[in-house]
Write a structure and sequence with these properties.
This protein is rod-shaped. Strands 3-10-5-6 form a 4-stranded antiparallel beta sheet, covered by helices on one side. It has a two-stranded antiparallel sheet with strand order 1-2. A two-stranded antiparallel ribbon has the order 4-7. 29% of the residues lie in helices and 24% in strands. By secondary structure, it is of the alpha+beta class.
């Protein structure tokens, strides 16, 4: 005789309950087996991370004294002055060639020119230091009043060039006993005239000619 419908339902429900309890038991068993290993792995990972990121704390103690770095260097020796004892002594310069300029006793319309007092007598000498340029027009320099007033004396050496027609160009002072003479010497030499120099029949520029002017006051 077949089972009534209610019996079949009761059996199905009982089987489901049994099966559900079995699955729950398996899950619990799985959890119980896996949980210790998971916990152990987690602990190992945390310990590894701890040791990886751990920073050693500095030891607190008495601070050490700061070391002193000493840098030494040898002082440079002063340069030894050159020894000129073995140099060839240059020959003495030639004696100055004095050029006498005639005294003018009158100026203008015959009015007598004032004659200097004995204390104002001026002696001007020209030292010929370069014979390559032949001067054909020379004008005597004038003793500057401001130099004479303070008793300045000495030699002024001027260097210059002469162009193709004999005019003085590019005058420059080489040495000067007193700067108060410089402008007078430059103006004077610029008015001089030289014989033009030629080479193979062609006029050339004469360069680096020199003249020396000595200014002296006589008692």
């Amino acid at each position: 005789m077949p089972k009534p419908h209610t019996d079949r339902l009761r059996e199905t429900w009982a089987y489901s309950c049994y099966r559900g309890k079995s699955l729950e038991g398996l899950q619990m068993l799985r959890i119980l087996l896996v949980a210790p290993f998971s916990a152990l792995i987690t602990v190992i990972i945390f310990l590894g991370m701890y040791y990886m990121i751990r920073v050693d704390q500095p030891t607190i103690g008495t601070p050490k004294e700061m070391p002193t770095i000493i840098i030494t260097a040898q002082k440079p020796k002063p340069p030894v002055p050159p020894d000129y004892t073995d140099d060839v002594i240059p020959p003495e310069p030639p004696e100055p060639t004095e050029i006498e300029f005639p005294d003018r006793t009158s100026v203008g319309d015959g009015v007598p020119a004032p004659r200097p007092s004995p204390g104002d007598i001026i002696k001007t000498a020209f030292l010929v230091t370069d014979m390559t340029g032949q001067a054909i027009v020379t004008i005597p320099p004038v003793y500057p009043e401001r130099c004479k007033g303070r008793g300045a004396q000495g030699v002024v050496i001027v260097e210059f060039d002469v162009n193709e027609i004999g005019d003085v160009i590019n005058p420059r002072i080489i040495s000067s006993a007193d700067s108060c003479f410089d402008s007078t010497v430059l103006r004077t030499i610029a008015r001089w005239k030289f014989a033009p120099a030629t080479r193979n029949g062609n006029p050339i520029i004469q360069r680096n000619l020199r003249r020396a002017f000595r200014f002296e006051l006589e008692e």
